[in-house]
């Protein structure tokens, strides 16, 4: 390998080495606090290693990986999300009965898997990255083994992830049978002269979409989402909602652009059907919930539908819209689940909507932060979520996809109800949530609140002045 190869792979190498180093520190029987601080420093180091990537991108590590500006952007979002989850995890796990040290090893491995997905240009690296991500998630979801909901959620995710991997592998095999290659670019060249997709290739691609659909939790592959979101520890839920979805969306977008899949109408029809069903079903199911985790779980189905709306046109603007919306969604969902993490107690997570009654009168700052995150998810003006949805609408209308744009607007209107229901609960009455005692670790509590406050500032800043993020997204966009 050349020096440039090592520079290009430095984030992946650092994440791999970090997981090994944390295992060695655990063997030395260091305390939870030392393990957490060490992992935090390693996440920061991995994040800052990305600043050297543009000097060598686009850089191909044949035949599996490519490190270009888009990969650097997605890896930045993934590692940043892992860093925030790491910070929030201390106050959540410190009071729990299980020893949380091994948790940080799994966190590094799952982040590594998502980063491999972001740089994949081959079916082998795609599958390896996906399995590194999902195998770590099995353990993370069921980490609090004393709670039966966690074990149930972990088993459900294990069974369905294995089921979806089988579909994914069989679809890859059919595409390999048709094209003779598993590399995206060679597959694209084999399809270049064809006016339509061969039946064998279309069948394989359909099976791959089933596998990817399970990972993204889009309709009709969404049945596991609410149970896993509710059963997993709250920091792990935020990790699933951001990191695992971001890596899969990145590799899906790269694959469709390389093979120029946007010119095949049967494929676009499949994606449009999934997007419309996800936006409608996700929002309607969220209306019926009284558990905040389940509300956010079903709303995530709708948000993945919005991302598919942005992906379908296949234009330069649609690529920018996907990147912008991913950034806004990551920041927003980390903020929302961060508040739930801080308010959780040793016995229970803060997931019942009634537990947020009169939160403003007990924790005014936390209530305002949570409200800003929910308003951004709803797409209210002056938030990053609004600009992201506007960007998606502009991309879809520019390409003439009026129907899916109309469904997006209707879905956003429906979603406004259940987001405002949580907000109204926080500002109503004067009873409700008792103040959580933080005497055992006030510094980590303060750091967590500061991080969430900074994320809230980003939500508002990108909603009021989106030009900076738009320029950033355009610089790091995926070339067509």
Characterization of this structure:
With 480 residues, the protein is mostly helical. The chain folds into 2 domains: 260 residues; 217 residues, no CATH class. Helices cover 74% and strands 1% of the residues. It is built from 20 helices and 2 strands. It has a two-stranded antiparallel sheet. Strand 1 and strand 2 form a beta hairpin.
Nutshell version of this structure?
With 480 residues, the protein is an all-alpha fold. The chain has 20 helices and two strands.
Main traits of this protein?
single chain; 480 residues; mainly alpha; 2 domains; two-stranded antiparallel ribbon; 20 helices; 2 strands; 74% helix; 1% strand; globular
Rounded to an integer in angstroms, the radius of gyration calculated over CA atoms is: 21 Å
Strand content: under 5%
Major sheet:
2 strands, antiparallel
Number of domains: 2
Number of strands: 2
Shape: globular
Mean pLDDT over the residues: 86
Widest β-sheet, arrangement of strands: 1-2
Element order, helices and strands? HHHEEHHHHHHHHHHHHHHHHH
Number of helices: 20
How much helicity do the residues have? over 70%
* Structural class determined from secondary elements: mainly alpha
Measure the end-to-end span.
28 Å
Task: List low-confidence stretches.
Answer: 432-439
